[in-house]
């Protein structure tokens, strides 16, 4: 025999109560139960109880330039969906210190600051399938303390600052797109995030920007027609795998960024360089491709340590792989062919190891220049380069060339 407790009966009764239909006009609307709008609302909406589901059914909440339009503070299990939210003085939809919030299929535009902001201890939420555009700061922003949220399949276009911005950590960004913003995606002091299968197209600065953000997984994303496709500034220990950065001014940029792992990324057809590494230590590059860039394929400047394995540089305007003032890098099994000037050039770069690399059909295959000293080149191959396959033009000392196969060479 089935027994019903008082609590189970109450739960059943609540489940059978239909959502209230509200014909709102103006003012502040306080919601403590499930609500479906049947007209536009002029003013603010404040969720004042847990578990409330607001369905705007395609109607508009106009914040009348006072405060934030939809406010959720200290709540659990709230849902806001199918709303058009605009004209807030500050935030279109504001979520503070709330758990398991769902924001779905909303259109949020022309608000005074962010379209959507989730902050201060808000965890376990889902922000999905929203369109957030033309806001006067960011499209979707996660502030400090926002963690373990899923941001999935949103579009953020033509916002004044970032399409997606985060000061939080441990969030997942999946299949979102950002275009026409100042920057597409921005992570600031934001660590432990996963960004997968997102796109950043036609933003006026960076497609994906990481600033003092460590230990993020960045995989399968695409950046095109931005200034920098992907930039990492003072950001360490990130895993950057299988991303595409084409048709930007610069494909991938590391600046004072250490211990990052770049695998199977593509930086092609950029206006300057595919991969640019400056002032950075102990980064690893494996199986990346840089082709048809106007200037260089891979360029290290004042960057030391790490490995460079199995990468391909081809058809770049000047050099395939460049080491300027960089030391103690191990380059193994890379190819650099059909570049306009040098396949592999090391200028005032010391104590690097070049092993089993190949360079064909460049002007120079391998070239030492400047004060380069103490470099070891073993088992490399070069031929059909138009000037020389290998040349040591440096004024440094102690470069060692062992068991290489070059058709033409000079200086050693």
Can you describe this structure?
- This protein is mostly beta strands.
- The protein has a single domain, classed as Pectate Lyase C-like (3 Solenoid).
- The strands form five sheets. It has an 18-stranded parallel sheet, with no helix packed on it. A ten-stranded parallel sheet has the order 4-7-10-13-16-19-22-25-28-31, with no helix packed on it.
- The radius of gyration is 27 Å and the shape is elongated.
- It starts with 5 loop residues before the first helix and ends with a strand.
- The model is unreliable at 1-21 (pLDDT under 50).
Helix vs. strand class: mainly beta
Number of helices: 1
Largest sheet: 18 strands, parallel
The count of strands amounts to 52
CATH fold descriptor: Pectate Lyase C-like
Share of β-strand residues: 35-45%
Cα-atom radius of gyration: 27 Å
Low-pLDDT regions: 1-21
CATH architecture: 3 Solenoid
Classify the oligomer. single chain
CATH class identity: Mainly Beta
The residue-averaged pLDDT reads 94
As for the number of domains, it is: 1
The 3D shape can be described as elongated
Summarize this structure briefly.
With 412 residues, this protein is mainly β.
Keywords for this entry:
412 residues; Pectate Lyase C-like; disordered N terminus; mainly beta; single chain; 52 strands; 18-stranded parallel sheet; 1 helix
